[in-house]
């Protein structure tokens, strides 16, 4: 099955649903970053959440960034999505090797530790909207639920899962958001609570021959669902040589001068996709000269003012 994200609502408009299958996307992220199993599960859950959050974006230029900063050995997680469910992300410690927890599951909470969850929504305006909450568990799904409750006042059921086999390969990955709309009736709340009590982990419901529509019909029985749209999910980085040049320019005159004086090749590596960009000594000197020119131009403009 190809990865995709689905948006749906109950026919009465009281409940909104986002669901995603991200198996191939997470497997690709694991390969690109050479992730050990625990970091792969942590990043996979976060990428899946980002893919589902993309369903709230309307403008092509909008993005959502999920940033998890904890004091655990994983160090942190970052995932970004655009309005087309193109996601990218990384963890700070890809080679973290942790024992399973007391339940025999990956200890994501122990890997993440205590800290904060930031959700940064950039709609292309002057300033992005930043919502921050404390991590309530570090397992990511519960933290996303808490974020929606506190920052967006939207009661949300969150299911995120990544299944890894004994060889460390990704078997499946996916997630579901179920959100109560303002004015939702007590009857709908009670019905949803009963559905959630019976809902198996998402990794147990995902299968090559089952669609997200099949899964939602199973976990939300008794309500007519309206499927709004679907879109493919994929890992797609936005890095480029031009962007790396801008990163070099942002270092400043002094640092660029030191790099140019070394007269060696300079290699930059993208955090998101591990692509390498090599700049020759002559290219570094050209960038250094450009930085000086830009600084002189800025100085002249300030004098004119």
UniProtKB/TrEMBL annotation:
Q: Which GO terms describe its cellular component?
A: cytoplasm
Q: Which cysteines are joined by disulfide bonds?
A: 237-239, 270-273
Q: Does the keyword tRNA processing apply?
A: no
Q: Name one GO biological process term.
A: protein refolding
Could you tell me where this protein is found in the cell? Cytoplasm
Task: Alphabetically list the UniProt keywords.
Answer: Chaperone, Cytoplasm, Disulfide bond, Redox-active center, Zinc
GO molecular function terms listed in the Swiss-Prot or TrEMBL record? protein folding chaperone; unfolded protein binding
Principal location: cytoplasm
Tell me which Pfam families the record gives.
Answer: HSP33
Check the record and name the HAMAP family matching this protein. Answer: HslO (MF_00117)
Give the family this protein belongs to, as stated in its UniProt record.
Answer: Belongs to the HSP33 family.
UniProt protein name: 33 kDa chaperonin
């Amino acid at each position: 099955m190809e990865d995709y994200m689905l948006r749906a609502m109950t026919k009465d408009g009281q409940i909104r649903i986002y669901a995603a299958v991200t198996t191939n996307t997470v497997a690709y992220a694991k390969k690109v970053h050479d992730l050990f199993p625990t970091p792969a599960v942590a990043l996979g859950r976060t990428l899946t959440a980002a893919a589902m959050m993309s369903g709230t974006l309307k403008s092509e230029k909008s993005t959502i960034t999920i940033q998890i900063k904890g004091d655990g050995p994983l160090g942190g997680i970052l995932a970004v999505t655009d309005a087309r469910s193109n996601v990218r992300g990384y963890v700070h410690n890809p080679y973290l090797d942790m024992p399973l927890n007391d339940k025999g599951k990956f200890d994501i909470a122990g890997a993440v530790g205590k800290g904060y969850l930031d959700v940064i929504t950039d709609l292309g305006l002057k300033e992005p909207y930043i919502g921050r909450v404390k991590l309530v568990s570090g397992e990511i799904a519960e933290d996303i639920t808490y974020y929606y409750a506190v920052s967006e006042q939207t009661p949300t059921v969150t299911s995120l899962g990544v299944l890894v086999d004994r060889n460390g390969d990704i078997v499946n990955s996916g997630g579901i958001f179920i959100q109560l709309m303002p004015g939702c009736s007590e009857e709908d709340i009670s019905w949803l609570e009963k559905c959630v009590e019976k809902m198996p982990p998402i990794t147990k419901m995902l299968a090559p021959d089952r669609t997200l529509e099949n899964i939602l019909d199973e976990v939300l029985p008794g309500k007519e669902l309206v499927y709004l749209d679907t879109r493919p999910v994929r890992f797609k980085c936005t890095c480029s040589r031009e962007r790396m040049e801008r990163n070099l320019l942002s270092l400043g005159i002094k640092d660029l001068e030191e790099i140019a004086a070394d007269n060696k090749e300079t290699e930059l590596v993208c955090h998101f996709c591990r692509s390498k960009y090599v700049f020759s000594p002559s290219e570094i000197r050209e960038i250094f000269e450009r930085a000086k020119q830009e600084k002189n131009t800025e100085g002249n403009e300030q004098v004119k003012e």
